[in-house]
Design brief:
This protein is of the alpha+beta class. It is built from 18 helices and 20 strands. The strands form 5 sheets. Strands 15-12-14-13-18-20-16 form a 7-stranded antiparallel sheet, sandwiched between helices. Strands 5-6-10-8-9 form a 5-stranded antiparallel sheet. A 4-stranded mixed sheet has the order 1-2-4-3. Helix 8 runs antiparallel to helix 13. The longest helix is centred in the middle third of the chain and has 17 residues. The structure holds flavin-adenine dinucleotide (FAD).
Length: 484
């Protein structure tokens, strides 16, 4: 259904004409997320200020059968916030109030547009912080984090977003409002909060989010270690875990990623080193110190060529600045790049990195690696030049890397989600029955498939891979019949 004059009128009534973008030039700024290879100009963009306005916007969508896509900061890397042509984008950017910080029960209540870093900023005066920390944390929103079940460097020890969300207020596809989960964290009945986490905006829009806060650790120790090979660095990771140590973070970077990050932010990395690890331990001082010595010994055993220990918070911040800037910094050494996101069992890290290097050589393309080594979550960056006609080759290589992860017993995505990018690859990882169950769950929340359609699950229209059992009948779409 297209957005006709009656629908436009209803949207303007619902949230005020000034908050409805119709101008093509402004609509274009919403045409993609961080996966810029996919672009669709939306029919309209809505900028509600409150949860009630979000519900009113969705109600108009439901009445006129207009598809809608929720959008946080648009930093997603899998095309999750890609608009639907003739649909609306509902931006949550104006719902950015921290509604409550409760230092006694250690939780915060947030509007969905609050940035990840602002949660910790609000909690810090109470000696608390919010643990999941995507590298995009300065700009990405908690709503986007919930939809993607986002991770980050410190999720090795503390778990992903799903481990830190207690309750969600959600606007469903018919405009009704429900609460999933509860502030206590203990709920009777099925875990519908868990269903929402990682559903990539396909089962509703989160308008209020209650998260767990953790006590700021007594001490943090951070080291940067260089190694003569990726294999040696990979063995260090395995040995640290085998020694019973759970670091707060273990991040790995290869030569190309190190070079890019160092040139961008001068973090003190060694240009030319084949591999570097950032290892961080946190907790009580005595425990940290003991474990730190063990980690140092493991690094030395594997031929570490330089070991730099952050002397203070400033040096620690510099080490992390380099790691967190790495994706963007790669733009300095290549005109274009794809960020891939896959998982392999930690024990297969060295093997997968060797195979990725071979695949890059075969394709005649460079691949930089910067990733969460502790949980086997790879981020190969496939470098290419669109101007030199390398786009298709790079896309194929990137896709093959994701499928290699599945072949090695891992996952198509560790944290960036499936979105538009990998929906067609889902049958490589899940059986038809698995996918049918997921489709039925989604259908229960959104029978008319208005909520971020075409994302996450493969559809025949987009992939031609498998028939979609639950695609709505044309008569349903026309409002003639209803699915009960
Ligand atoms: C430089 C860089 C580094 C990154 N590092 C990491 C990292 O370390 N770890 C990681 O996990 N990710 C990382 N990402 C990916 C991205 O930042 C995360 O996926 C983030 O959670 C997206 O948040 P957002 O607000 O930008 O959401 P958007 O991109 O706007 O949307 C993402 C998805 O969430 C849905 N959505 C947004 N808000 C809502 C809502 N309120 N209710 C329901 N659905 C909603 C959208 O429809 C879409 O499907 C990185 C991205 C960049 C560009």
């Amino acid at each position: 259904m297209t957005i006709d004059a009656a629908a436009l009128h209803d949207f303007q009534q619902a949230i005020g004409a000034a908050n409805v973008i119709t101008d093509l030039a402004r609509l274009r700024s919403y045409e993609c997320d961080g996966l810029t290879g996919y672009r669709v100009v939306p029919g309209l963009v809505l900028l509600p200020h409150t949860a009630d306005e979000v519900a009113a916007s969705v109600t108009v969508c439901a009445t006129h059968r207009i598809p809608f896509v929720a959008r946080g900061a648009g930093t997603g890397l899998s095309g999750g916030a890609l608009p639907v042509a003739d649909g609306v984008v509902i931006s949550l950017a104006r719902l950015r109030r921290v509604l409550e910080v409760d230092p006694v029960d250690r939780r915060a209540v947030l509007e969905p547009g609050v940035t990840n870093l602002d949660i910790t900023r609000a909690a810090a005066p109470h000696g608390l912080y919010y643990a999941p920390d995507p590298s995009s944390q300065q700009v990405c929103t908690i709503g986007g984090n919930v939809a993607e079940n986002s991770g980050g460097a410190h999720c090795l020890k503390y778990g992903f977003t799903t481990n830190h969300v207690l309750a969600l207020e959600v606007v469903l596809a018919d405009g009704s409002v429900v609460t999933l989960g509860g502030d206590s964290g203990e709920q009777a009945g099925p875990d519908l909060r868990g269903v929402f986490l990682g559903s990539e905006g396909t089962v509703g829009i989160a308008t209020k989010i209650t998260v767990r806060l953790l006590r700021t650790p007594e001490t943090v120790r951070t080291l940067l270690a260089d190694f003569p090979s990726i294999q040696a660095a990979g063995e260090v990771v395995s040995d640290i875990v085998a020694a019973g140590i759970v670091p707060a973070a273990v991040e790995m970077m290869d030569t190309l990623a190190i070079e890019a990050a160092e040139e961008a932010v001068h973090a003190g990395y060694t240009i030319g080193t084949p591999a570097a690890l950032v290892v961080e331990l946190d907790g009580p001082v005595e425990e940290c110190d003991g474990q730190f010595e063990k980690v140092r010994a493991i690094c030395e055993k594997h031929g570490c060529t330089r070991l730099h220990i952050a002397a203070d918070n400033e040096e620690r911040a510099a080490i992390w600045r380099g790691r967190k800037a790495a994706f963007a910094a790669v733009g300095r050494i290549s005109p274009d790049y794809f960020v891939q996101d896959g998982v392999v069992p930690r024990t297969r890290l060295a093997e997968v990195l060797g195979r990725i290097a071979d695949m890059g050589d075969e394709a005649g393309l460079r691949v930089a690696n910067v990733f969460h080594a502790g949980d086997g979550n790879l981020h190969p960056l496939v470098l290419y030049s669109a101007a030199a006609g390398e786009t298709e080759r790079a896309e194929v290589l990137s896709g093959k890397i994701a499928e290699l992860c599945v072949e090695l017993g891992g996952s198509l995505s560790g944290e960036h989600g499936i979105g538009t990018d990998k929906a067609c690859s889902m049958p490589k990882m899940f059986s038809e029955v698995d996918l049918d169950v997921m489709a039925r769950v989604r259908d229960a929340f959104d029978p008319h498939q208005l909520c971020n359609p075409g994302k996450l699950l493969p559809t025949p229209r987009l992939c031609g891979e498998r028939p979609g059992k639950f695609a709505p009948h044309p008569l349903e779409e026309a409002g003639v019949i209803e699915r009960l």
